[in-house]
Amino acid sequence: MISRSSPQANRFLVYFLLVLISIAFLTPMLWMLGTSLKPLEQTTSKQFSFLPRIAYVDIDGQVHKVRVDDEPIPADGSIVEILDGPKKGEKMYLPKSEFDGTYAMLEMQVADRIMRDTFPAKALKEVHAGWYRVVEKVDQYKEGARAWTIVPQGDIEQRVEFQWSNYAEATKFIPFKNYVANTLIMAILGMIGTVLSSSVVAYGFSRIDWRGRDQIFLVALATMMIPFPVTMIPLYGVFKQLGMIGTFQPLWVPTFLGTGFESFYRDFFSKIGSLQPLWLPCWFGSAFNIFLLRQFFMTIPKDISEAARIDGCNEFQIFATIILPLARPAMVVVALFHFIWAWNEFLLPLIYLSNADFFTLSIGLQAYQSRAGGIEWHFLMAACVLTILPIIALFFAAQKTFVQGIAMSGMKE
């Protein structure tokens, strides 16, 4: 007999695979969260550690917070103090081949040559291969020398400590609050415009019968295949002629303009003597959002609209008082999609915003990568966590409506 697995076993297998896939997708985010709580030296260390750890060493009876080198000491030697010469008073590690107990062999640059000479020195501490050099950690914003020494690996104590101060420090490198406000302004205005313009166009494609409706709808969907680099330069020229470059207007004004504004752009291009790319207005309006709302509008029975017409309602009244309230789940989906896109958008603000006072979060995060002295990864990851938190909170707040809107948009009348 052929054995068949039970439905419970199949369900368990499916859930198990979904959990594994979810963990795989969550791993980069969890790594970012862990890195945001690490000290700087751990973010650049070659040693793998998911949790943030701080190293402590007992030196002369006092426990010090230290930074440990990635590579151990390669050979036996000594920590010596130079007693004479250009490096008098300096303390350094020398292997046995370069220190005989009395004199140290040092390299020095004289003019354009490297010279080797011996100088008197005394041993301070004997060290062995496999020990690690440690440097005492001090406040990175305070000046001062950092004491160092070499200790056995067994003397180094690793403690799990979350550096919550990274989040506060991350907001000090750039005007974080100002960038958040700029991003909210751009995202909220664009969200309102997208919902309004897309819903009007979707209503015309779904609830009103007119000649060529379906053919024009296919043309509108085809605009999704036009890559943005094709329209980037003409759009920049349009916004420059309108005096919008350097402001938020190119980032939210187009969302209020649907495909019904073609005549306006035709007249505008003729006035400025351009090549009149009549396909350009298709950019002003999201074909995907129009498609999503159209599909949802088509699930609403037309009997409701007919009853409203019998009661004397015109098309605008039907649209505003009947269709929009019933389509709230789909409109929430469209609003959420645009808000997430605008919140994360990098290219458009980079092109149109020239004043640092108007920068958004996506551009502001570049400040961490352009600072002199290397990238401070723990601050960059902390800023990234702060950036994605509003999106996560927004999704969970609108999760029920979001799922309902996606599910209903695929149903046929």
Can I get a quick summary?
The chain has 413 residues and is an alpha+beta fold. Helix content is 50%, strand content 15%. It starts with 6 loop residues before the first helix and ends with a helix.
Query: What's the tally of helices?
Result: 17
- How much of the sequence lies in strands comes to 15-25%
Based on DSSP secondary structure assignment, what is the total number of beta strands? 9
Q: Please state the overall shape, judged from the principal axes of the Cα atoms.
A: elongated
Helix content: 40-55%
Main β-sheet: number of strands, strand sense, barrel status? 5 strands, antiparallel
Show unreliable segments: 141-145, 259-284
User: Alpha-carbon distance between the termini?
Assistant: 46 Å
Strand order of the largest sheet: 8-7-2-1-9
Rg, please?
Answer: 32 Å
Mean pLDDT: 81
- The run of helices and strands is HHEEEEEEEEEHHHHHHHHHHHHHHH
Backbone structural class: alpha+beta
